[in-house]
Amino acid sequence: MASQADISSGVGAQANSTGRPLVLARWLEIVAAMVVVIVVVGGITRLTESGLSITQWDLVTGVLPPLSEEAWQAEFDLYRQTGEYRFESGPAGMDLDAFKFIYFWEWFHRNLGRLIGLAFAVPLAWYWIKGAIPAGYKARLFAILALIGMQGALGWYMVASGVGTDLTDVSHFRLSAHLLTALFLLGGLVWTALDLRSHARDPNSRPARLTGPSMIIASVLFVQLLLGAWVAGLNAGHAAYDWPLMNGRLIPEVDFSKGVLWTLTHDPFLLHFLHRWWAWIAVAALVWLARRVRKTDRRASIAIHSAFGTMVLLGIATVMSEVSLWIAVSHQLVGALLVASVAWGMHSDGIAKRAQAT
To answer: What's the whole-model pTM score?
Structure first.
C-alpha cells in the first residue's frame, strides 16, 4: 500500500502538471483588453501628430510628466528641434499649451505600454513561482513577454526615425512594424487564452494548431493590415475624400518614375487605392473563415462577420469625413477587435480540424 507521503507527492505532481489554466486564461484576456486600449490610444497619438512630442526615451524617469513650467519649456524646446515642429506645427503657430496637448497623448501611450509590461511580467513571475502554469505553456508565455519587450523597443525605434532629422513624420515602415507587432501580440494572447480555457475543460486536450486555410486567411489579412499601417504612416487617408471613386476617378493617377517597388511602398495615392480594394479580398477570406467555423463555434463566426462589416463601414466613413479623428480611431479600434475575432475563429478551426482527424 502506498504511504501517505507517496499519495501527497502524487497529488502535488498532478496539481503542478495541471496548473491553474482558467485563472491564467482570464489574466491573458485582461492583458489582451489592455492591448486593444493601447492600440486605440496609439491611433489617437498618430492622428493628433503627438508621436514626436517626447524626444527622449527614459524608461523610469519618463513615467512622470513635467512638473513645472521650466520643465515644460525644456520639453517644448527639445520638440522645437524636430523637423515636425520646424516645418509643420511651428509655422502653424503651435504654442506651449498646444504642445501640452500632444505631449499628453504620447506620455499616456508610453505609460500604457509600461503598465502592460508590468501587468504581464509580475503575474507571470508569480504564477511561475507558484507552479500555476500548466506543462507546455512556460515557453509560450515567456515568448509573449519577449514580444511585449520588443514592442516597446520598436516604439522607440519608430520615434527615433523622426527625431534629429528633417522628417515631419516617423518612418511608415517602422510604424507598421510597431502596429503589426501589437496586433500579433493581441492574437497570441487570445489564442493562448483559448488554449488554456480548453485545458481547463479537459486537462488532456492539446493546443490548437493552424490549419492550411487559416494560414491563407491570416496572410490575406496581414496584407490589408500592412497597407492600412502604411496609409496611416504616410497620411494617405487624405489622398481622396470620395468613395468609391478617388478624386473622381476609379483608378488614381500614379507616377512610377521612381520605380515600381518605391511606388508600391511610398506613393500615398496607390497605397490608399490598394487598401480600399484589397479590403474586399480580405472580406472574402474572412467570410470563408466565418463559414468554416459557423457550425462548430457560431459565436466566433458572428464576431468575425460583425467586426469586418463594421470595419468596412468605418473605413468608408473615415474617407468621406475627411479623416475625422474619432471615426478614424474607431476604425483602428475595430481593426484590433477584428484581429482578436479572427484569432478566435482560427483557433476554433484548428480545434474542429483536430476533432475531425480523431
So the answer is: 0.91
